[in-house]
Each structure stands twice: as structure tokens, then as C-alpha cells.
Amino acid sequence: MPSNIDTDRFPEWRPFIDAVQQRRPDTGTWCEAWTVRDIVVHQAGNAEELARVLSAHLEGQPVGTRGFEEREGPLRAMNDTDLWAALHDRMATLNEIAEAADDVPADTDVGWTGRTMKVPWFAEHMREELVLHTWDITGDNAAAQRQLAQAWMTTHSVIAVGKPLLAKGVKQLQPGERIEARLRVSGSEDVVIDADAERTTISLAEPDGPATLETDAAARVLLLWGRRPADPSRISSSVGPETLGRVRTLLSGY
User: Fold this and answer.
1) Among the three residues 122, 139, 156, which one is the final residue of a domain in this structure?
2) Domain carrying residue 25
3) Structure confidence by residue, pLDDT tens digits, 128-177
4) Residue 19, burial from CB neighbour count under 10 angstroms (0-12, 13-18, 19+)
5) pLDDT given at position 3
6) Which residues fall within 8 angstroms of residue 172, CB to CB, at 6 or more apart?
7) Which SUPFAM superfamilies does the entry mention (predicted)?
8) pTM score, two decimals?
């Protein structure tokens, strides 16, 4: 089994592996309709595609991003032993490519799923996937909540992934319907969303005026990714069920 995965570069790797190993592959998760095995497939595919696209950029031969089915189909066909080895292999390759990318200017843009990401975001995106899907497996335990609550998780979710995270929810808006929302966590910037069927913006801004909903940092990341904390009392709002319901519909995740 490859061991050359830098846990300083990917500190979330070991908690994810531990969570997977503590459950059967067919165990259900908080990610709707996915088992632990489905998450392993998804993570191996993520690592493979992030490495493939970033490596091609470093070699001066950019490639487009493959869809989930194309990258995950061969992995789903593997038996559990081979899939487990593939996950480690893909992560080791991503680790190698991310290390090679350290010499590239950090503000370099690389094409990724219809947008661009900065070079350092490729490793960071895998880190976020590891955090999120560890929570999918473990639920709201203390370790998962600490990982989700890290400030960089919110920043990456908004800046690097924000619009794609809203794309599914935007499709449910009616013509002329507009949703404005402020998602607030005490002591941090608001996540500000302004969306209609034609245009979507999501950004970080200083708190201003009333919040649409207030919560903790970990729960806010879950909401941005179309998930919910197990304890609904972690979310509070005074805007009423219609407005809050529309915001929650917009936050549908991928």
C-alpha cells in the first residue's frame, strides 16, 4: 500500500481513512443515497481527477475536467480490495503533483469544471472533500465538527466552490424569483448570497443588518454543501418559514 501521502499537506487524510475503516463498505452515510463504499469511490475519483488536471497544466497541455460518471465508473467496477488500493494510489499521485505545483505562482489559474481554480486550491479542494465526507461517515462528532469549523473551510466553500454549490438550487427558482441571504456566524464574516434564475453571487462580507439565519461555523459549511447538522437547534432564524425554506432549497449542494 503506498505510504507517500504527506499528512502535513493533507492532515485530513488519516481521519478520513480511520472513519472508513471503522465501518462496513455497505454502511449508510449522511450523504443521501451513498454508502461508505460510494464515498470511497467518489474520493478516489476526486483525487485522480484533481491530479490529472493539475498535472496536465504543469506539463503545458491543459485538459478538460471529466464528469463524475467517467472518472468513477471504473472505480465502481473494482472489488473492495482493489478499490481501497486505488484510493491510496490516487491520493499518493495527487500528493506528488501538489508537491510539484509548489513552484508554480499561487495565483495561477487552472481550468476546472467550467471555471478556474488557483493552483493551491487543488490540494485544498481535496482536503475539503476529505473533511466533508468524513462528516458524512461519522456524523456530528467532536472531531468532525472541529474540522468543519476551520475558517479555511468556509473560505474555500465560498470562493472556490460557491457558485457550483448553488447551481442545483438555482435551477429550482421561478422566473423573476430572487433570493438574498446572509448566513451569519458570530465573530466572523457573513456568507452573502444573491441569486436569481439568471445570476448568482456568493461572497464573504462584514456583518451588516439582520441575518437570514445564524449558526455555528461547522453547521454553516454543512449548509453550504446541502447538508444539515443532526441538531436543528444549531440553526436559528427569525425571517419566517417561507423565506428560510427558500434559502434552504437554494442550499441544495451538488
Assistant:
1) 139
2) 12-139
3) 999 999 999 999 999 999 999 999 999 999 999 999 999 999 999 988 89
4) buried
5) 55
6) 249, 250, 252
7) DinB/YfiT-like putative metalloenzymes
8) 0.95
